[in-house]
Amino acid sequence: MTTLEHLKSNQPADRFYRGGNKIRSFRSVDSEAATGDHVPEDWVGSTTTLFGDARVGLSRLANGTTLRDAVEQHPQHWLGPKHVAAFGTDTRLLVKLLDAGERLPVHVHPTDDFALNHVGTQHGKAEAWYILEGGTVHLGFTRAIEAEELGRWVDAQNVTAILAAMHTVEVHAGDSIYVPPGMPHAIGAGIFLIEVQQPEDLSILLEWQDYAIDGPADGHLGIGFRAALDATDTRAWTSAQISALVVRGGVSDHTLADSSAEYFRASRVDVSAPTTFAAGFSVLVVLSGTGMVTASAPGAQAIPLSAGDTLLLAHALGEFTVDGNLAVLRCQPPATR
């Protein structure tokens, strides 16, 4: 049974916003990277499907099995006994490469409670962005917004008013931003990032004009905007509170804001000498450079690494060592006790 796999590109087609070129460039060693200009997301280590679809979005292993099926069949192998005891076969993790070929519309992801009570899903969607190429992002409201005012903005598609009421943050390569569930947000044009998130595809659109999506029909998770907009965090966020969500140039255990740890973990590690990592289910993204990864098990083969690689590591792999001259981002589910 496999314990470590290179994952090929997994890009749902015909998304409603543009992008894809930066994923192809980053994944230059992957001949299967999708073509076209509406493939802006690469779903890595995914046991999640597009909202309303039974299969699209699932990662496949080299033998053709979906990761979701593999985990269901052998949860201890993939996730480890502590994870299974705490969360069952839920991986608690989805990683994406995201290329914003244009500014994404302002949108919101629900909390766990809202998602369970209104949509019937196991999670809401907290997320964090590790920035590969920077730009401008929009996060949270600068003042408290009444529900009626928000509803009027959305009905009229008054995007100017929505953006004017939000914080604007400049981000650079190496920064990270944690986006709590409920917070309205938008990723600016030109940004390329790795997204670490809860494993759901749940978005409530506050904006849709000029995008290839029918917002009134598809922007509210099928529950209607009257209910869906209640998922929005309409509180005023201070500049200091927004700044606490941003980590500038973080490495090791300080890659993401501490407040994200209940949902997921990510750690950027710069390797210039053999570096050993603890066992645990994870997705490894090679940010730059070249090197090798070797498991601690006797007879384990060294596997080459290069920039743009994405790897899936099972708990059963045990400790593993990365050597060479490279930078990696290790993404993991929340820690268990």
Would you kindly provide a written description of the structure presented here, covering whatever features stand out?
The chain has ten helices and 18 strands. With 337 residues, it is of the alpha+beta class. It folds into two domains: 8-259, Sandwich (Jelly Rolls); 265-332, Jelly Rolls. Strands 1, 13, 14, 15, 16, 17 and 18 form a seven-stranded antiparallel sheet that branches. Strands 2-3-10-5-8-12 form a six-stranded antiparallel sheet. The longest helix has 10 residues, at 147-156. The two termini are 27 Å apart. It comes from Cryobacterium lyxosi.
CATH topology of the largest domain: Jelly Rolls
Helices and strands: which structural class? alpha+beta
CATH H level of the largest domain: which superfamily? Answer: Jelly Rolls
Query: Segments where pLDDT lies below 50 for 5+ residues?
Result: none
The chain-level mean pLDDT equals: 96
The amount of beta strand, in percent, is 25-35%
Whole-number count of domains: 2
